[in-house]
Specification:
Layout (H helix, E strand, L loop, with lengths): L2 E4 L2 E4 L4 E6 L2 E8 L3 E5 L13 H11 L31
Length: 95
């Protein structure tokens, strides 16, 4: 659980550790419902990423795509990996 120091206390970002593929490799992060995404290292400690790191573009896209998690456990950021809606399936196609 990542903790962020704030004036007169700390904020625990916490939550399940998620993984997302970026141009620089896999980034682990926690997604707090109020504070948003917080990159973490493999020990769960907060990790600072530069504003131009591709993580920020990818996690924004993940939010826009509905915050889906794929079968591999990674965050889905492209339409080609997203499950199709029932209305888009061919007649008789199985899931």
């Amino acid at each position: 659980m990542a903790c962020v120091r704030i004036k007169d206390g700390i904020l625990t970002v916490g939550g399940k550790t998620l993984r997302i593929e970026t141009n620089e490799g896999v980034v682990m992060f926690e997604d707090h419902p109020y504070c948003g995404p917080m990159p973490v290292d493999r020990n769960g400690n907060g990790r600072n990423l530069a504003p131009d790191h591709s993580f920020w573009r990818r996690v924004t896209l993940w939010y826009e795509k509905g915050k889906k998690i794929g079968r591999t456990g990674f965050c889905v950021t492209s339409a080609e990996y997203a499950p199709r809606k029932e209305s888009e399936r061919a007649a008789g196609e199985k899931r």
